[in-house]
């Protein structure tokens, strides 16, 4: 086995664990934004993605994404089953098997991101079928295009950690599924407010924490590139929090916790493709733009009449587009590579043109294939839950569970307060109506 770099190996081991943590973080983030009667179904979609995509990655996903190139479109199947990787090391000094494990975590969360667009109305079984087919036909090949030596990579498009391969890819698929499944019962007239904002903030915090493995880990070693990626990730996200809440403060009169959490995710998305190519001041500018534009983009679904439940399109597709295109303006040649200076740093329009082509190619391919897969599932076995299940609670219909048990005949709370009495309730014992959340906007 080639000599390994223990420092690089330790960092990528840590980064892989950080990126895996992002998917349970996403489950909390998305789960808190749904209604209480559909939170388990929402979270199960993320955990289902962890189980399914992990196995597909070993069977053939890694080989399609990073195998020997075939025509710039896909990798061969020479590494199917991760065969031949037990005694090999990479040029970066880490085991090939570790690189495969690190990239697996990207595949998992990319699939899970899509689920936010169809919250409250999707059956779990058909979701797993969609997830497996989409990963096979879209994510694995697109990862090869962008990182595995495929045509986008060879064209010189810059995507350090997943603006196209992860966020635009997932956002376009989310839009396709939202159109296939249609609007939730009562949308947009009814207010679909988050049921647990502390859960949303916890999920956003875990995403922010894990994202340092996502971006800085993509350097492949504990080096200067990882350092610039880490600081850019932090300051861009911080700026995006402020950018988002300023927009909603001016528009709605109040800054909200949901806006702060959503702004953080928008900033993380925006800086992902650009984190290793910008100076910190450029990263701050990118974050401010991403936060403000994504906050404004939330309103698109009301104007265009598509029901993207948790605003995956506004945050991930729009945020990914912003980050990918701003490379063409803000890239610094000394870190982005010779000939890769952005327009504002003395470069020409060539880099911006390449970035735009990469954005459009991934967006169109993912949308079309996702729409076809989703439409086929809906017309055969049915993708959308029944209206009755949606209204009564999809958690019970799909999983025979509820997230919150308030029965007075069981549970720890009931045992403390004792059995209910037969006395008639008085005005003083009537439960108060819960206060309505300050905002109905959701993003994810």
From TrEMBL:
Pfam families in UniProt: Ammonium_transp
Transmembrane segments: 12-32, 39-60, 97-119, 126-148, 160-182, 194-214, 226-246, 258-277, 283-300, 312-336, 356-377
Keywords: Ammonia transport, Membrane, Transmembrane, Transmembrane helix, Transport
Membrane topology: Multi-pass membrane protein
Localization in the cell: Cell membrane; Membrane
Stretches assigned to coiled coil: none
Entries under PANTHER family matching the protein: AMMONIUM TRANSPORTER MEP2 (PTHR43029)
Family per record: Belongs to the ammonia transporter channel (TC 1.A.11.2) family.
Protein name: Ammonium transporter
